[in-house]
Write a structure and sequence with these properties.
Strand order of the largest sheet: 1-2-3-4-5-6-7-8
Bound molecules: zinc ion
Number of helices: 12
Largest sheet: 8 strands, parallel
Distance between the termini: 33 Å
Order of helices and strands: EHEHHEHEHEHEHEHEHHHH
Radius of gyration: 18 Å
Oligomer: single chain
Shape: globular
Strand content: 5-15%
Number of strands: 8
């Protein structure tokens, strides 16, 4: 099984996770810029974080034969902090980078006027830089937050097929399908979406324009839940080709719209031998 995790926060994960992911078939991933938990108080903290997303993490992933791409944005939560607003001016520098494949995560956290403004400004950046957009939906009052996100996407003029609305569930999937946007699902170890529930959604709505991710981060999460979902699909009677479409070809089709995925290189990564973990001295030396 070859897997492209379209949403995972490796900054928060250990090197053991990279090793387990590689062994499970993860050959590529997208790491969206997000809220790190500890509030950032200056723009410099964002610059250092963005640098690590386009520099250090791709290097760390490459030790395990995994291709690492990033999405860059001011996240919805910190859009509310006036000290972080200047981050918007920092974004163009990063949106020009080769391995930045979308603007994200953008969208709503508490649905404030500040979030409205920053969301719209960043959709405009996605259009200006000809990049797809990754939209996070709020964990509270998800149905309303999703409807409002779709309205803002429509108003921005960005082509809906270049937008993924993420963290969906049974309640929000239908409105996103109707909008023409891609539907993203984060699979969690407990609460929210689980592999069996994901399989039911795929049965009902099909595999087109569907993205399944682990969204693993600093909270309770599991970077192998993409693999578990693929196995649950097979058990439920989906074909190997269906699994390959959802877990590999769909992320490539969506993020490939950036023009920045090297397909030949990705196919090579997927076809290559299982990575070995010898000679990994640099990562062992880290502290
Ligand atoms: Zn995320």
């Amino acid at each position: 099984m070859r897997i492209f995790d379209p949403h995972i926060h490796m900054t928060s994960r250990t090197t053991d996770d990279y090793e387990r992911m590689a062994a499970a078939g993860v050959r590529a991933l997208v790491e969206p810029a997000f809220w790190l938990g500890q509030p950032r108080t200056s723009v410099g903290s964002f610059a250092d974080y963005f640098d690590s997303l386009v520099g250090w993490e791709p290097f760390r992933a490459s030790q395990f034969g995994i291709r690492h791409f990033a999405t860059i944005a001011l996240n919805p939560k910190e859009a509310n902090d006036p000290r972080c607003r200047e981050v918007l001016e920092l974004l163009p520098r990063y949106l020009d980078k080769d391995n930045v494949v979308a603007v994200g995560e953008i969208g709503y956290d508490s649905t404030t006027p500040e979030e409205d403004e920053v969301f719209a400004a960043q959709l405009a950046l996605a259009i200006a830089y000809d990049l797809p957009a990754l939209v996070h939906t709020p964990h509270r009052d998800k149905a309303r937050g999703t409807a409002r996100s779709i309205a803002v996407v429509t108003e921005s003029g960005i082509e809906p097929g270049r937008v993924v609305i993420d963290h969906l569930n049974e309640v929000t999937v239908e409105q996103v399908r109707d909008s023409g946007c891609w539907a993203g699902f984060s699979i969690y170890p407990d609460t929210k979406m689980s592999p069996p529930r994901m399989v039911e959604i795929l049965r009902k709505y099909g595999t087109e324009r569907m993205l399944v991710n682990s969204a693993a981060d600093w909270g309770r999460s599991d970077p192998l839940l993409t693999r578990t979902t693929g196995e649950a699909m097979l058990e439920a009677g989906f074909s190997d080709d269906d699994v390959d479409r959802v877990l590999w070809r769909n992320p490539i089709e969506f993020y490939g719209q950036s023009g920045r995925l090297d397909l030949a290189e990705l196919e090579g990564a997927a076809a290559g031998p299982e990575p070995t973990f010898e000679g990994n001295s640099i990562l062992r030396g880290g502290s």
